[in-house]
């Protein structure tokens, strides 16, 4: 199963890549404990951890929503042909993402809204594609919703020095600026109501403009959390940031807040990068959290 319904909203998972991100768990999550990877190997492997190579497995995927008569994409992955000198695992990819989107019944011109939860390298790549020598918007009829705080932070003209150094080099120029120059962006702040069932809210920490998308339709709830967490180990150890979090204290506080909301509201937690079943229901026991159940999406079984 690659599609579920929550209230009036359909959710489809569209894959770009699944496999190793060529980082061991303690490089990716330097604050995590040794025990979570050792004791959790039976449930983290193989979907979230390659125990043979001791590297983290991750999915690059887009969440396709159909809501209120609109076709909406949540995050757009890495993209093809992008020059990524400081992130070679994502450099010059040749994936079948647009074909996978077509198999889900969507052509680029059908997309009404693109949501970038934040503006990292692996969330904006398919915002654009290479036409001749120019990067142009992939989705010509879409409004691209971008958090203004991230737009300002990652704009090289503003001279910010991000924590990951040059890891996001070229991303603004080839995947953000062309869409803005085409007049297709809406830069929002604090909160943005998309329709009766979908709302964006600022959730800073991972980046200054990181955001979450809350779905509330009928009795169903879900929260799309971008990179608030990359791996389900962070549900068990919510204070364990990734090495890419700009504001470590802010990321920990935001992660705990959203996990608590998901548990208290019986909401499906939908991170950007989970392989396996892609999303989880959260249980709370005081200040600790666990996984109550998985979404019914079919697990990825091989690299793609």
Unreliable stretches covering 5 or more consecutive residues: none
What's the shape? globular
Residue share in helices? Answer: 10-25%
Largest sheet: 8 strands, mixed
Determine the mean pLDDT: 96
Write up what this structure looks like.
The mean pLDDT is 96. Strand 13 and strand 14 form a beta hairpin. The chain has 8 helices and 17 strands. The two termini are 17 Å apart. Strands 1, 2, 3, 4, 5, 6, 9 and 10 form an 8-stranded mixed sheet that branches. A 7-stranded mixed sheet has the order 11-12-13-14-15-16-17. It has a two-stranded antiparallel ribbon with strand order 7-8. It is α+β, with helices and mostly antiparallel strands and 304 residues long. The protein is globular and about 50 Å long. 48% of the residues are buried.
Defining traits:
304 residues; eight-stranded mixed β-sheet; 17 strands; globular
Write the layout of secondary structure elements.
Blueprint: E1 3-6, E2 9-20, H1 25-28, H2 34-39, H3 41-44, E3 49-50, E4 55-67, E5 70-74, H4 97-103, E6 113-115, E7 128-131, E8 134-137, E9 143-147, H5 148-154, H6 171-181, E10 185-188, E11 191-193, E12 198-202, E13 211-217, E14 220-226, H7 233-236, H8 248-264, E15 268-271, E16 280-285, E17 288-294
């Amino acid at each position: 199963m690659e599609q579920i319904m929550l209230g009036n909203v359909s959710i489809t998972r569209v894959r770009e890549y699944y496999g190793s991100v060529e980082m061991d768990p303690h490089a990716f999550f330097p604050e995590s404990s040794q025990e979570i990877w050792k004791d959790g190997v039976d449930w983290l492997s193989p979907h979230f951890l390659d125990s043979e190579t001791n590297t983290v497995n991750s999915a690059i995927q887009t969440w396709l929503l159909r809501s209120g008569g609109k076709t909406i994409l949540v995050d757009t992955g890495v993209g093809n042909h992008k020059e990524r000198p400081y992130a070679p695992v994502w450099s010059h990819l040749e994936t079948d993402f647009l074909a996978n989107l077509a198999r889900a019944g969507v052509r680029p011109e059908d997309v009404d809204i693109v949501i970038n939860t934040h503006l990292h390298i692996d969330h904006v790549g398919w915002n654009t594609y290479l036409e001749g020598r120019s990067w142009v918007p992939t989705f010509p009829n879409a409004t691209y919703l971008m958090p203004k705080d991230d737009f300002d932070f990652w704009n090289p003209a503003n001279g910010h020095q991000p924590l990951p150094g040059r890891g996001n080099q070229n991303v603004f120029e080839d995947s953000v600026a062309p869409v803005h120059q085409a007049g297709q962006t809406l830069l929002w702040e604090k909160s943005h109501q998309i329709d009766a069932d979908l709302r964006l809210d600022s959730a800073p920490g991972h980046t200054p403009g990181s955001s979450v998308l809350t779905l509330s339709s009928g009795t169903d709830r879900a929260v799309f959390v971008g990179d608030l967490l990359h791996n389900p180990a962070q549900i068990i150890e919510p204070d364990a940031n990734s090495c890419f979090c700009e504001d470590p204290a802010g990321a920990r506080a935001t992660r705990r807040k959203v996990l608590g909301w998901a548990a208290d509201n019986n909401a499906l937690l939908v991170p950007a990068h989970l392989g396996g079943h892609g999303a989880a229901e959260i249980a709370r026991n005081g200040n600790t959290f666990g996984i109550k159940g998985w979404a019914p999406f079919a697990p990825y079984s091989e690299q793609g």
